[in-house]
């Protein structure tokens, strides 16, 4: 990807200025209708997406979306409305609708803006703006090159699910009646390929993709295609394994799902609804004493870096897990009030998370495991958020003597998340950077694996 492709007239700051003016007009309309508090989000998104399959173009889609979402509070009564029509009469009608909803709702003691003293005082950028001036023809060429490299690598690649390229930019302004105005701009680009190897009932599918905020962060199309092919061919001739209890190594690209289950269980909405297996777990040891997860919202070129959350609350670096102990929950101002706690600056979700490694790369983890299952794909949604019971379809590779011996599919792995967290033996240094949850492979010491009877 050539950095010279990025040179163009950038009007993003002027567009942010216009969105800020729009937000101020909407807030003035809210005040004029008697709202005690109000907040508004104005967004403008653009994108280009292309897909190809078997050397032919399948889709080309250019998008341009914009919208305004407004929330008003009359005391502790809340109303929200949104529109994609930015004409004055439409904006007035949207505010009127939000006010009408608020006047007909019941009081909610937890409703309202976040406290004014929590608003971010500074809103620096974190190098998240890298537009890619890519026309459709060039995007198609890159996708075709990616797929061709994969299809040509091995004669066993019999078919393709295609290659796709996406590039997008997002501008946003959040403002509220505390006087806070926050501006953000970000870009994201991706290129991926999925291939099919084998024939008939013996066919296997896999793929690979690259993602980044800047075009120069992406792997080369040919490298992506070749890796997709290598992963696909490696899955041929899978065998079943006997049902039993084995160590399970979650490859980095699926290991982040384990962290996702933790985040779901410690989110404010799950806690105040009492729909979590980690109720009243703050301050408890959930993981081995070396395990740590840190939130880093101010990471330069982080996929989810921001100086403020969706309510304007200042973000800060902090530990979610330290020395194996759960340090805090993940709360917005609303969920915090429901729980009698204080917001953690996570309205809208978590920002960049780093799971601290204590081991080497994937090869080192395989050698350390010795014998067990390497999971590279998970299927199904068999996780009970209330009990923590875990059961999912899986595919991957059987490992003997620290080496991959053969592919495995058609199996189920099962356990309980609390016990799985306690049984984590290693986190690898092979961090997958394609997500805001940045973790290496995770080795769980023992799980039930349902294979052959």
From TrEMBL:
One of its GO terms (biological process) is proteolysis. Belongs to the peptidase U62 family. Residues 130-236 form the Metalloprotease TldD/E central domain. Residues 38-102 form the Metalloprotease TldD/E N-terminal domain. Pfam families: PmbA_TldD_1st, PmbA_TldD_2nd, PmbA_TldD_3rd. GO terms for cellular component: cytosol. This is PmbA protein. Residues 243-451 form the Metalloprotease TldD/E C-terminal domain. SUPFAM superfamilies: Putative modulator of DNA gyrase, PmbA/TldD. One of its GO terms (molecular function) is metallopeptidase activity. It comes from the Bacteria. InterPro entries: Metalloprtase-TldD/E_C (IPR045569), Metalloprtase-TldD/E_cen_dom (IPR045570), Metalloprtase-TldD/E_N (IPR002510), PmbA (IPR047657), TldD/PmbA_N (IPR035068), TldD/PmbA_sf (IPR036059). Transmembrane segments: none annotated.
């Amino acid at each position: 990807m050539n950095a010279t492709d990025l040179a163009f007239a950038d009007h993003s700051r002027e567009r942010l200025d216009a969105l800020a003016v729009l937000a101020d007009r909407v807030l003035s309309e809210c005040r004029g209708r008697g709202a005690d508090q109000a907040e508004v989000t104005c967004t403008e998104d653009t994108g280009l997406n292309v897909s190809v399959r078997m050397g032919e173009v399948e889709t080309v889609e250019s998008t341009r979306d914009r919208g305004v979402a407004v929330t008003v509070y009359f005391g502790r009564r809340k109303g929200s409305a949104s529109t994609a029509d930015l004409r004055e009469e439409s904006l007035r009608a949207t505010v009127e609708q939000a006010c009408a909803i608020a006047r007909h709702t019941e009081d909610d003691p937890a409703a309202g803006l976040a406290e004014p003293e929590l608003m971010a005082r500074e809103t620096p950028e974190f190098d998240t703006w890298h537009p890619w001036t890519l026309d459709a023809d060039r995007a198609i060429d890159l996708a075709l090159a990616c797929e061709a490299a994969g299809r040509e690598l091995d004669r066993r690649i019999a078919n393709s699910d295609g290659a796709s390229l996406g590039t997008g930019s997002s501008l946003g302004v959040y403002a509220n009646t505390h006087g806070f105005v926050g501006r953000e701009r970000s870009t994201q680009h991706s290129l991926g390929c999925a291939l099919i190897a084998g024939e008939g009932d013996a066919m296997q599918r896999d793929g690979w993709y690259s993602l980044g905020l800047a075009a120069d962060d992406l792997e080369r199309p040919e490298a992506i295609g070749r890796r997709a092919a290598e992963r696909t061919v490696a899955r041929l001739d899978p065998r079943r394994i006997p049902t039993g209890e084995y160590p399970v190594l979650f490859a980095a690209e699926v290991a982040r799902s384990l962290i996702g289950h933790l985040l779901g269980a410690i989110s404010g909405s799950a806690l105040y609804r009492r729909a979590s297996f980690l109720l009243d777990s703050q301050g408890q040891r959930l993981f081995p004493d070396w395990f740590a997860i840190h939130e880093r919202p101010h990471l330069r070129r982080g996929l989810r870096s921001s100086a403020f959350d969706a309510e304007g609350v200042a973000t800060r670096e902090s530990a979610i897990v330290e020395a194996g102990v759960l340090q805090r929950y993940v709360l917005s101002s609303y969920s915090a009030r429901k729980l009698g706690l204080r917001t953690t600056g996570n309205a809208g979700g978590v920002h960049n998370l780093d799971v601290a490694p204590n081991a080497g790369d994937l090869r080192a983890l395989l050698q350390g495991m010795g014998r067990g299952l390497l999971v590279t794909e998970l299927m199904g949604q068999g996780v009970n958020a209330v009990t923590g019971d875990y059961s999912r379809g899986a595919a991957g590779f059987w490992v003997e003597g620290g080496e991959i011996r053969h592919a495995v599919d058609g199996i189920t792995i099962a356990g309980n998340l609390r016990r799985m967290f306690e049984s984590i033996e290693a986190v690898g240094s092979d961090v997958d950077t394609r997500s805001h949850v940045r973790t290496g492979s995770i080795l769980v010491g023992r799980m039930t694996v349902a294979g052959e009877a």
